[in-house]
Specification:
Helix 12 (230-247) links the parallel strand 5 (223-225) and strand 6. This protein has helices at 2-9, 15-26, 32-41, 47-69, 95-105, 120-128, 130-133, 143-155, 166-170, 173-182, 209-213, 230-247, and strands spanning 110-113, 136-139, 160-165, 186-191, 223-225, 250-255. By secondary structure, the protein is α/β, with parallel strands linked by helices. It is 50% helix and 11% strand. The radius of gyration is 24 Å and the shape is elongated. A 6-stranded parallel β-sheet has the order 2-1-3-4-6-5, sandwiched between helices.
């Protein structure tokens, strides 16, 4: 239906803006908000393009209204901040950013990793802000090197973290054992994804608790955090660094969707 409506407006390319209008209506967003934003966003494109996109959004609202009346979709009540209000104290974060900021707050000045979704966001965020916070970031050749680099960083007096996901963490088992034997602190961010092996790289799950709990061979203490939300991610990651340092143990941060 989006393409059909867009063709009626004059160009099938407007289909995505019809969808924007429909979704905004379902979420009860004041239609002036997307209309004003559209005018600003397409200002340089000329009045014809602006009017086409605005018309598409309005048709999306009308389409949503028809669907709601037919009870084909439910209308949601989501609080939307007034754009005129001062909302500077509101922070929009995703999980990777919350872990990263918590790590910075915990004194993290070294991170190593071999990229593996969905953990890579932590490495990229800290890499982007490495100069601001004096953080050494290292993309290792594999996960074995990554965990050993982080252990070496702690041994040299830094506060290091390694970030990985299921299949990558499977390669880190000997490094976890080494941390236990050395009584070396280390913070391990384990972004859980469905397995086994490669599994589902673009999905998440809560399946790695026992993997973290029993990782490595031999009996040695460890600490595992499984944050339940964005705020928890920040504070528990910060705490992970302090407790790893205090008790000289591996501390895990398990994240999921």
């Amino acid at each position: 239906p989006f393409t059909k409506v867009a063709k009626e407006i004059g160009n099938p390319i407007f289909a995505n803006m019809v969808a924007v209008g429909l979704i905004a209506a379902i979420f009860r967003i004041n239609r002036q908000i997307p209309l004003e934003y559209t005018r600003k966003h397409f200002f340089a494109k000329g009045e014809k393009i602006i009017l086409g996109n605005i018309t598409a959004i309005k048709r999306g609202y009308e389409l949503a209204s028809d669907l709601i009346k037919k009870e084909s979709v439910a209308q949601l009540s989501i609080p939307v901040p007034d754009p005129k209000q001062n909302i500077k104290e509101e922070i929009i974060l995703n999980g990777a950013e919350a872990v990263s900021l918590g790590a910075i707050s915990g004194g993290c000045n070294f991170i190593s990793a071999y990229p593996m979704s969905p953990s890579t966001g932590v490495l990229t965020f800290l890499s982007q802000h490495a100069k601001e916070f004096n953080i050494i970031t290292e993309q290792a050749e594999d996960e074995i090197s990554a965990i050993n680099m982080a252990l070496g960083a702690w041994y040299a007096g830094a506060r290091g973290m390694v970030t990985t996901s299921g299949g990558g963490f499977a390669l880190m088992q000997e490094g976890v054992s080494l941390a236990g034997m050395l009584e070396s602190p280390i913070v391990i961010h384990l972004a859980q994804r469905p397995g086994p092996a490669t599994g589902l790289p673009t999905r998440t799950e809560q399946g790695d608790l026992e993997l973290a709990l029993y990782s490595g061979h031999g009996d040695f203490p460890r600490m595992i955090y499984a944050p339940g939300g964005i705020q928890d991610l920040f504070y528990l990651t910060q705490r992970a660094f302090n407790l790893a340092d205090k008790y000289q143990i591996p501390v895990f941060i398990l994240t999921d969707e």
